[in-house]
Amino acid sequence: MSNATTIGRQSTRKRNATTVGLITPEPDHPLLAATAHVLEAEHRVVAVHPETAGLGPSQPLADVYLLKSRTPRALALARALESQGIPVINSAGATALCQDRTAMAERAREAGLPFAATRAYGSLTDLLGVVAAAGQPGPLVVKSRHSRRHDLVARVDSPARLAEFADDWGDEPVVVQEFAENDGYDHKLWVIDGTVFSALRRSELAPEGRGPTLPLTPGQLPSGWAELAVRVGEVFLLDVYGVDVIATGDNGAPLIVDINAFPGVRGQAGAPQALAALALRRAREAVAAP
Question: pTM for the full model?
Answer without folding.
Answer: 0.89
